[in-house]
Design a protein that fits this description.
alpha/beta, Aspartate Aminotransferase, domain 2, seven-stranded mixed sheet, binds 4'-deoxy-4'-aminopyridoxal-5'-phosphate
C-alpha cells in the first residue's frame, strides 16, 4: 500500500496515531468478513426489508436502483468489492465512481482530518481549493487553464452550457443520440438517452448520430468519420437556414450509457473543426471516462490526438471517489465571457475544503498506486479474454474498449446484429448470483458494461470471464441463446 497522504493542512491535528482515528467503532461501518457467500455477524442495522419499506414509502418512485426486482443493500465497500448486509462479497465490475477502490483508507483519513478543521461553504480562500484547481488544470492541454468546481456531473454540464452561451451568444446545442449528460432540466434537454420519445426534444436542441462503428447509422461505411461529421455539418447548415445560432456541440468523449461507444479516429478533430467554424464551442463530457480510466491518457478525448482540444471539459464521478465533487475546465477567454455576463458564480458546496481534499487524494492515489498502468495492463488482458469468449459464444457480437472501459455487446445474429436484449438481461441476473456485478446499457440494453474500480486485478478478470463463460455455456445448453 502506498504511503498515507499527508498534506500541508494536516497541521496540528490528531492524525490517528493517538487513536482518535480511525472513525468510531460502529458495527455498521466496521470491516465485515469477506467470505464470498456466508452470513456475517458484522452488520446489525435495519433489515433490508425495513429499509426497502421505508424507501418505498418516502423516496420518489422514479429514483432508480440496481436490480429493481430484488434490490441489493450494500453496507460495506472495500477496493473492488461490495458487501451486502449478509456479508456476501460481490466483485464490482461497474463502479467508476469508486475510481481508486471503495472506501480507500487514504481518502477516509484525509477527509476525516480535513473535517476536523473545517467543513462549510466555499466562500473563503482555502489551500485545498486552490491546489486542486492547479493540479486539475495541469492535467489538461495548456489552453484549458481555468477551473470551476461543482458538486456533480449534471451541475458541471449545466455550467458548461451556461459558459458556452455566454461566450458565443448562441442558443442552440448539438448533441448525439444515446447521450446522457445529467438529470437537471438543461441536461435532460440534451440527453436523448432519457427521452421517452423525440417529442421530448426541445427546439434549441439538435441531435446527430452517435459515432458508433458497430451498429450506428454509418457503421457499414468505408469512412464513418466523414459520414458522422457530415451529419454535424448538415445540422449546422440547417440551423443557419432557420436563423438559429449555435452555442455548443456536446459529446461524451466515449459514450457510456449509450453503450460504451468509442468514436472513430479523427471524429473529434473534424467535428470540432465544423462546430468552431460555425461559431460554436466544443464541450467534452468526461464525467464517466476521465481520470486515467483509458490508461494511456488521463482524459479520453486525448485518445483522438494531441491536437484535439475541447473548449470546455466537464468532469465528475471518479473525481472524489464517491464524494460529491465535480468540475468544469475551460479557457480563460470562456471563463471571462461568463464573468462579463454574470460576474458572480457561487456554488455553496462546489470546491469546499473536504471535497477538494477527497479529489486531491484521488489524484495522489492514481499516481502512487500506478492505476493508469494497471488500466493498460489489466484492461488489455480483459479485452483479450473477452475476445476469446467471443470466439466460443456467437451471442457476443462485439467487444470494444480502451483501458478499464469495455463493452461486450450481445446479439441474436452476428450478421443482422439483432440485439439480444432478453438474453443479456438473463446474463446480468445470473452474474449477480455468481457474486459479480455488471450492468447493461445502450439503446437496446444489450451491452454489458465493464468500468470497474481501477484497482481491478487480472485475477478479477479471470473470475469475471470464467463466470460469463459458464453462464453463456449453460444458456446455450438450455437453448436460451
Ligand atoms: N455525464 C455523464 C456522461 C454521465 O454518465 C453522468 C451520470 N451518469 C452525468 C453526466 C451526470 O452526472 P451526475 O449524476 O453526477 O449528475
Amino acid at each position: 500500500m502506498s504511503k498515507p497522504c499527508r498534506r500541508a493542512f494536516d497541521f496540528a491535528v490528531d492524525d490517528g496515531s493517538s487513536g482518535k482515528y480511525p472513525l468510531p467503532d460502529d458495527s455498521r461501518s466496521g470491516t465485515m468478513p469477506m467470505n464470498g457467500n456466508g452470513n456475517s455477524a458484522g452488520y446489525s442495522g435495519m433489515s433490508k426489508k425495513e429499509v426497502l419499506a421505508l424507501r418505498l414509502k418516502c423516496v420518489g418512485s422514479p429514483t432508480s436502483l440496481y436490480f429493481k426486482d430484488d434490490p441489493m443493500m450494500i453496507v460495506q465497500g472495500e477496493g473492488q468489492y461490495l458487501i451486502d448486509e449478509k456479508g456476501n462479497r460481490y466483485l464490482d465490475c461497474i463502479n467508476n465512481v469508486a475510481h481508486v477502490g471503495h472506501t480507500h483508507p487514504e481518502i477516509t483519513r484525509a477527509c476525516a482530518l480535513q473535517m476536523n478543521h473545517l467543513y462549510t461553504n466555499s466562500r473563503y480562500l482555502h489551500e485545498a481549493n486552490s491546489t486542486l484547481a492547479e493540479r486539475i488544470t495541469s492535467k489538461f492541454p495548456k489552453s484549458l487553464d481555468v477551473c470551476f468546481f461543482t458538486n456533480s456531473g449534471s451541475e458541471s454540464n449545466d455550467l458548461a452550457l451556461t459558459l458556452a452561451a455566454a461566450h458565443t451568444g448562441g442558443t442552440d446545442v448539438i448533441t448525439q443520440t444515446g447521450a446522457y449528460h445529467g438529470h437537471v432540466q438543461s441536461c435532460m434537454a440534451i440527453s436523448p438517452y432519457k427521452w421517452r420519445s423525440v417529442k421530448d426534444k426541445p427546439d434549441h436542441v439538435h441531435v446527430v448520430s452517435s459515432p458508433d462503428t458497430y451498429r450506428g447509422k454509418y457503421s457499414d461505411s468505408d469512412n464513418p468519420t466523414e459520414d458522422y461529421v457530415k451529419e454535424i455539418q448538415d445540422t449546422i447548415d440547417d440551423m443557419k437556414k432557420k436563423n438559429k445560432k449555435l452555442s455548443a456541440f456536446i459529446m461524451e468523449s466515449m459514450q457510456s450509457c449509450g453503450g460504451q461507444i468509442i468514436p472513430p479516429a479523427g471524429y473529434m478533430r473534424d467535428a470540432f473543426g465544423k462546430v468552431r467554424a460555425a461559431g460554436g464551442v466544443c464541450i467534452a463530457d468526461e464525467v464517466q471516462v476521465g481520470f486515467g480510466r483509458v490508461g494511456t491518457h488521463f482524459w479520453a478525448f486525448q485518445l483522438q490526438g494531441s491536437d484535439v482540444v475541447p473548449d470546455i471539459v466537464t468532469v465528475g464521478k471518479p473525481m472524489g471517489n464517491g464524494h460529491p465533487v465535480a468540475a468544469v475546465v475551460t479557457t480563460r477567454a470562456i471563463a471571462e465571457s461568463l464573468y462579463k455576463a454574470t460576474p458572480r458564480y457561487f456554488n455553496t458546496y462546489g470546491g469546499n475544503a473536504v471535497s477538494c481534499t477527497a479529489a486531491l487524494t484521488v489524484l495522489d492515489i492514481i499516481e502512487n498506486e500506478k492505476l493508469m498502468e494497471n488500466a493498460i495492463v489489466t484492461g488489455k488482458y480483459a479485452m483479450e479474454k473477452f475476445e476469446q469468449l467471443k470466439e466460443n459464444h456467437a451471442v457476443i457480437g462485439d467487444v470494444r474498449g480502451k483501458g478499464m472501459f469495455i463493452g461486450v455487446e450481445f446479439v441474436r445474429d452476428r450478421s443482422t446484429k439483432e440485439p439480444a436484449t432478453e438474453e443479456a438481461s438473463i446474463v446480468y441476473k445470473r452474474m449477480k448470483e455468481r457474486y459479480i456485478l455488471v450492468s447493461l446499457d445502450g439503446p437496446d440494453n444489450n451491452v454489458m458494461k465493464f468500468k470497474p474500480p481501477m484497482c481491478f486485478s487480472m485475477d478479477n478478470v479471470d473470475q469475471l470471464v470464467q463466470a460469463l463463460d459458464d453462464i453463456l455455456s449453460e444458456l446455450a445448453t438450455l437453448g436460451l441463446i
